[in-house]
């Protein structure tokens, strides 16, 4: 059984109460990063391309360098121009030394979510952003362990075939008793949920980016400030920076990586 614990307490930026930081795990949440007018325009732009709102599945739109669900990397030959509703806010992202160049806009009808995963370490830069709009949602974090890495879904074909890098390592086999114990430990490793309000920007770096899985549980309600609240349609823009050539690879201290689910 998964143990749910209280979310750790953030530090509020002394000069801007809209900025919350969990410094030890590299997590930042910025409230009201976009205006309500921006939000309305983004929702309209999304549905101009994908009119359905009443489906039961998450819908994704890809901009910039596409994510390739067979390699968990990016496709260099597929580039979709990035809409101005995204490029307009890039100069306000908290990290300006490098900027995202891959954008996935997703619509989550109420009741849908995304399974626990760690976005690929080797293919994307450290900073991982999620801009939420349309509805609040709870994002669940859980420290990932070696068994999570073992469950990693390897790419169907290696994006590194053309590069000089070795393909992703297959985790060492372990004896089944040890594996069973680890599985138990991990199932019992506590998870906690963080409410992402509409118009907020989440930035994951360090441990929260590499050492924790993140997920959205598929359910119709969330508990916000002690009240059960119905989810409405929620949208997000996941922003990543594609690593290229020599930058592909990962020497971080965290165990393995879980690939994204390839269902979109
Ligand atoms: O919808 C979100 O906020 C996060 C989505 C996500 O984790 C991803 O696309 O990798
Ligand atoms: Fe993710």
UniProtKB/TrEMBL annotation:
Region described as Disordered: spans on this chain: 147-191
Upper lineage: Eukaryota, Fungi, Dikarya, Ascomycota, Pezizomycotina
Chain ranges of the Fe2OG dioxygenase domain: 99-243
UniProt GO BP: demethylation
Superkingdom of origin: Eukaryota
GO molecular function: demethylase activity; oxidoreductase activity
Transmembrane segments: none
Species this chain originates from: Staphylotrichum longicolle
Pfam families reported in the protein's UniProt record: 2OG-FeII_Oxy_2
InterPro entries, alphabetized: AlkB-like, AlkB-like_sf, ALKBH4, Oxoglu/Fe-dep_dioxygenase_dom
Protein's recorded name: Fe2OG dioxygenase domain-containing protein
